[in-house]
Amino acid sequence: xxxxxxxxxxxxxxxxxxxxxxxxxxxxxxxxxxxxxxxxxxxxxxxxxxxxxxxxxxxxxxxxxxxxxxxxxxxxxxxxxxxxxxxxxxxxxxxxxxxxxxxxxxxxxxxxxxxxxxxxxxxxxxxxxxxxxxxxxxxxxxxxxxxxxxxxxxxxxxxxxxxxxxxxxxxxxxxxxxxxxxxxxxxxxxxxxxxxxxxxxxxxxxxxxxxxxxxxxxxxxxxxxxxxxxxxxxxxxxxxxx
Length: 242
Prior knowledge:
Layout: E1 23-24, H1 111-124, H2 130-133, H3 137-146, E2 153-154, H4 157-167, H5 184-195, H6 204-213, H7 220-241
Antiparallel strand pairs: 1-2
């Protein structure tokens, strides 16, 4: 899990988010091309549709944001290998099944890009968003399907994957928020289902590839359970988005 610095509550960002281009899911955003293909694609990600409310696109997948790798953020375990240690990153190695990832292609981003997205997600998280992340899967599915116009959430695929990476070691930073007290399995499903394209199925193979690239080896049972819950979230977004 990525270690949260002491500034997490020192800033007002968790209680009052500044306007962020990657946040919300209702603001239109830049739209997306719906980057297709598996882990060997170009990495371009689309939104949750052909443009519109839930189509915010993250700009950091290429790693050209000029930010250096952060020091003192905790262990590097679980973070994607960007090849800086002399080897190929996991996504470029042989053995991963070919899966259509769409927006999830940004999982191939280098570590420093994930670190930046993680910080942006925390800075963008508002008290209004906490409602969704404190729900069960069943409650979240109903909320996303039937109350889309009221949904407040983090939409950026890279930010959601950064939070997924954080939670894959068994604990989520969002549970440090006073209004979020949820099990990590549910939070991971919300992160992954939200990060996905609304029209691309989240399968067990999807979960295997994404979590493997993030540096984690889940059991078959864990992979299947996460895929089922994340797919339920994706389908709810598809229904709600219309």
